[in-house]
Specification:
The protein is mainly alpha-helical. The chain is built from 14 helices and two strands.
Length: about 300
């Protein structure tokens, strides 16, 4: 009975943690609860949240994707180049997403068919596509983006920024796929026990490949949003974003071993990171100390998650 209670409580620990964090920061700095600041937090969180949604699919299978930051960078750079060339927003978005699909396919095929560890494959692709971005941009930002493309990252529908609405749609789609489709069930089965999943007739190689494609698409969409929002594409864009995405997934309660977790937990994890970053900035905490604090939060989340699963 006690273990059941603990398990039920563990489902909500991330939400409780977010609630406590918001209260603590609002006490320390009243500016935190202003409408403009909350809108800013949600907008800032949207990019990491979208990447983290894709990362959730990967980690649920027991994998990892370190290439999302580089995928974001090359997708954003290509989109910016197309906008400066002919201003075709639709083409820019399609090309960016296509790049995400290609990166995901490369990662997925090497991992599933090549039987190479996900860490090694995505570490290599992270380096390669970061290099490709530098070559494509000559190491310089692609700026001067104007017009309707900028609306993707800056437009508001009522009081809600468009990136927040896009994130909400992504969450709804991901939730449906993971909970209501055969693909979602197969994904959890693969993460729980790959051998058993294979013996039960699941095409594990196909599932592995598809989750990296999902991750690539999510990273590419984030690349479009962040490029649109700031009006330029930097070859350094997305650097370190893979760590924030992984942190959001882990803090949200998804097991790094795979087979257990949820997209709703991931969103809460992304909000915790976003609120923490925003609160520390409002409190004028040094960026160096912010890294230390964020690392401690991630470590505590992993330890609590491990304890909750015993």
């Amino acid at each position: 009975m006690q273990s059941i209670r603990n398990k039920n409580l563990s489902k909500y620990k991330s939400l409780i943690g977010l609630f406590i964090l918001c209260i603590a920061i609002s006490i320390l700095t009243p500016r935190f609860l202003s409408v403009s600041n909350i809108t800013n937090v949600l907008t800032q969180v949207s990019v990491n949240a979208i990447i983290a949604i894709g990362m959730t699919f990967v980690i649920l299978t027991g994998g990892i994707d370190l290439s999302v930051g580089s995928t974001l960078a090359i997708s954003g750079a290509l989109a910016a180049s197309i906008i400066n060339s002919n201003g075709n927003v639709f083409l820019a978005v399609i090309v960016a997403v296509a790049v995400g699909i290609v990166v995901g396919l490369i990662n997925g095929m090497l991992i599933s068919k090549g039987k190479i560890q996900a860490f090694i494959v995505t570490l290599a692709s992270m380096t390669i596509f970061r290099g490709v971005t530098y070559v494509f941009t000559n190491g310089n930002p692609i700026s001067g983006l104007t017009g309707s493309f900028n609306s993707i990252g800056n437009l508001k529908v009522g009081i809600l920024p468009l990136p927040v609405i896009i994130t909400a749609l992504m969450v709804a789609i991901a939730y449906y796929v993971l909970t209501q489709t055969r693909f979602g069930r197969y994904l959890y089965a693969l993460g729980g026990n790959e051998d058993s999943a294979r013996l039960s007739g699941i095409n594990t190689d196909k599932i592995k490949t598809l989750v990296y494609v999902v991750s690539g698409i999510a990273a590419a969409l984030s690349g479009v949003i962040i490029t649109s929002r700031i009006g330029s594409a930097s070859p350094n864009a997305g650097s370190g974003f893979e760590l924030d995405a992984i942190a959001a997934v882990v803090i949200g309660g998804t097991s790094l071993a795979g087979g257990e977790g949820s997209v709703m937990g991931t969103i809460i994890g992304a909000l915790i990171i976003g609120v923490l970053n925003n609160g520390l900035n409002l409190l004028n905490v040094s960026p160096f100390y912010q890294l230390i604090i964020k690392g401690i939060v991630i470590l505590v989340a992993v330890l609590l998650d491990k304890k909750g699963r015993k």
